[in-house]
Design brief:
5 helices, flat, membrane, transmembrane, transmembrane helix, DUF2178 domain-containing protein
Length: 132
């Protein structure tokens, strides 16, 4: 890949997401007759945010040093090798406790909340490791 294109990869990914969102909303409009403007505007707003962050990063980075060194990559690999197992263990123990208590039905909202908490913890952990 061209070195100039590597700098703008997140903008390209965001643009592809905008195009795929537009195609998806067009297909939904053809089959159902409903056009979800809020989905298109949300996608466009996300693209603008990604573009601005990428533009600021490209314009402010002047030297050729890599953004992440080898130690940080190794620390991130170790983090992502350990954290999912610990989190899944906590979830399984929690489900076992709920089963022992006698709760047989769990709302989907709680399951989605568990997934979002996991993603948030991984993001925060990776951010902290990236700072070191």
């Amino acid at each position: 890949m061209n070195e100039n294109f590597k700098k703008w990869v997140w903008t390209f990914v965001g643009f592809i997401c905008v195009i795929s969102s537009f195609i998806t909303h067009t297909i939904i409009y053809v089959f159902t007759g409903e056009l979800n403007i809020s989905g298109l505007l949300g996608t466009l707003a996300g693209f603008i945010i990604i573009f601005l962050i990428n533009a600021i990063y490209v314009k402010t980075k002047k030297n050729k040093t890599p953004a992440v060194d080898e130690r940080t990559i190794n620390n991130l690999k170790k983090f992502y090798a350990i954290v999912p197992h610990i989190y899944l263990g906590v979830i399984i123990i929690g489900l076992a406790v709920l089963t022992i208590i006698g709760i047989d039905v769990i709302s989907m909202s709680y399951l989605w909340l568990a997934i979002m908490v996991y993603l948030g913890l991984c993001g925060v952990g990776a951010f902290i490791l990236n700072l070191k």
